[in-house]
Amino acid sequence: MFRHRRRGEVPSLNTSSTADISFMLLIFFLVTSSMDAGKGLKRQLPPPPQDQEQVADILDSDIMTVELSAEGELTLDGKTITLQQLQQEVRQFAAVNPKHRVVAVKASPRTKYNDYFLLQNALVAAYRPLKCPPRISEVIEEEGGQP
Amino acid sequence: MMRRHFRRPDHSVPELNMASLPDLIFTVLFFFMIVTHMRDVEKRVQYQVPAGTEVEKAQHKSSVVHIYIGQPTDGSTDDYCIQLNNQIATTAEIARFIETERRRMSPEDQERLTVSIEADRDVPMSIINDVKQALRKSYALNVSYAATEEGASLVKE
Fold this sequence. Notes:
The complex is a heterodimer. By secondary structure, chain A is α/β, with parallel strands linked by helices.
């Protein structure tokens, strides 16, 4: 183990602990960091209501009303439907005039966030091929059934 | 003949050259330092985000503000609470929270300010709606509903 150095040679630095030190740093970063980059469904909220707001004139035929009950049941114009059916219906509906047609979403205050999220997800998916941001008007009904 | 030629004079095991090991570990270390980001807040609420097909990655980390909604981890109540920064808060405090976060940001980040709503699947919509109305009032109009990505799309193209 102990070797005799020849005279005039520079003694070498013992670097065997560098690996241990960098291992410790590596483990520190592994523990304190998280890999998951924040992913999410992007949506745009409307600006706050103004005092003198002009009520936009929208034809009844340009509005599609989707209701989401507290139990997560979807209703489109009075008929119960699934998310897949809704996505196709919305795509057909919006394809005609995506800049003017509006999807109105009504939800109950007791609706679970997951059901609401899946509905938003389906609407964004329906508008994706139209290359136009979804026009969605949202209403959360007050407790007690009053709109 | 050959055997004798290659035989070592003493019976010691040949030493492995470890000189490149620190370099290798440093490379891995730098990789992790670059691809990861530090946990900045301690979660005081527990939540499970929904899964969707249309989720996108957040573009600029420096312009994202997080709002967590879930049940408190200390078990004080079963009600759903809102967490801003490191503490449980109410919807009335959102406006001030957005304002302080805005002031901390650079002008470019203020422009593209996005609020990431990280809410549990079972949170009632009344709370989500209150948060959204508060965000509208403080003109934080870009929101992102935090979610995990789900493989298959609902409707095939």
